[in-house]
Amino acid sequence: MKEIINVNKAKDDYIYIGKKKYFDLSLQNGVLLLGHNNKIFNKSLNQIIKKKYTISKLNNKNLNKDFFKLVKKYFKNAHELIYCTTGSEAITKAIRIARALNKNKTKIFIVNGSWHGSVDQTLFNAKNNLRPIPMSAGIGNIFRDNVKILPFEDIDKTKKILNAHYRNASCILIEPVAASLPIQNRESYLKYLRDFCKKKKLIMIFDEIITGIRTEKGSVQNKYNIFPDITIAGKAIGGGFPISFILPNKEVSVKINKLKDKIFFGGTFSGNNYSVLSSYNTLKFINKNMITKMLKNSAYFQKKINNFCLENNLDVKVYRFDGFLRLIFSKKNINNIVARDFLEVKNRKKIDKFKKYLYNKRILYPKNGVIFLSIMINRDKTDFLIRNICQGIKKYFKK
Ligand SMILES: Cc1ncc(COP(=O)(O)O)c(C=O)c1O
């Protein structure tokens, strides 16, 4: 599909390209939970202008306990809030914490299919043999040698790799539910990792940059009652402004503050007034009913499309974890990321045609395939999406 460059404006669920209005299924990779240019974003901008706020951290009125209380609703065991600006920055610093608290042990465990942003240490994926493959040029061997990749959801293989390498490792880093393959019921795998970390004194890091807020009960950890040592949050939490957090639990927080050699956390834009104000307004505004409505529409979207595919023998299935979804181009049950990648490569041409079809129906399908609905969604809009997506699937993915 050709690059879209002429975006005129955007409002709620829609992006305007030229004079045409398109339904945006990406919402800036999940950032715009309240939709584009929503009233809370506008309120924050107006406050900044009217009250002549600056980004100087010297005068940061909003960095207060009240704000931390709002954040804690989503991440119950957070004991401290360390401000960062991007997800990648927060991940980099969380790994730094893990090494600092774990005698600088260099190895880290990541899970195939988890995405942690533009971080040299984690920018790897793997095929079935789990050998790290760099996802970018310019990543030195030292990063490859320090990363151990665990298979998605496979406890037996995971056990073997952990036992072989944990003595030289500082942490396990995981997206508790991966946007790359959003499935329910991840408790057993997460619980296994949680117990292993406790036993072997590794730091467990949950990257909840996507799952935070968008999940029933606010986060995967709240939903499953499985709590990491460190949580990373960001994206939707900033309400459209760049912000991310490192949230250590009490034990880690105490250890960080007791360390003789201090950990460096600084960043020019970390905790700047604009982002914190927007985040504060966003968290204050969002309530359970709004999230429930979005979750219900997401479930309805999944169910309707899956029923249609079954009835019409179409080779597609919608996967969903609470508030985000993904179409997988096979009707078989896919439960690992290597199989998903294989299908996406195999169907590349058809997928491109399908995206083009939706574009002509005024729907912008996400480049990375992860579908996010906003809290502005309603049944009519969801039906519009379902209707067009079903027709597109029927056209290109008939068995
Ligand atoms: C789960 C997850 N972690 C980390 C990141 C990296 O965040 P950023 O792009 O803000 O650096 C992303 C971004 O897509 C993400 O989805």
Task: Explain the overall architecture.
This protein is an alpha/beta fold. The protein has 2 domains: 7-33 and 287-396, Aspartate Aminotransferase, domain 1 (Alpha-Beta Complex), CATH 3.90.1150.10; 42-285, Type I PLP-dependent aspartate aminotransferase-like (Major domain) (Aspartate Aminotransferase, domain 2), CATH 3.40.640. It contains 14 helices and 16 strands. It has helices at 27-30, 39-50, 65-74, 87-101, 141-146, 155-165, 187-200, 220-224, 250-258, 273-285, 288-311, 337-346, 348-360, 379-396, and strands spanning 7-11, 14-17, 20-24, 82-84, 107-111, 124-125, 133-134, 147-150, 169-174, 203-207, 230-233, 244-248, 317-321, 324-328, 363-364, 370-372. It has a 7-stranded mixed sheet, with helices on both faces. A 4-stranded mixed sheet has the order 1-2-3-15. Helix 2 packs across helix 10, helix 11 (288-311) packs parallel to helix 14 and helix 13 crosses helix 14. The longest helix has 24 residues, at 288-311. The chain is globular, with a radius of gyration of 21 Å. The protein starts with 6 loop residues before the first strand and ends with a helix. The mean pLDDT is 94. Pyridoxal-5'-phosphate (PLP) binds at residues 29, 86-88, 91, 115-118, 175, 179, 207, 209-210, 234.
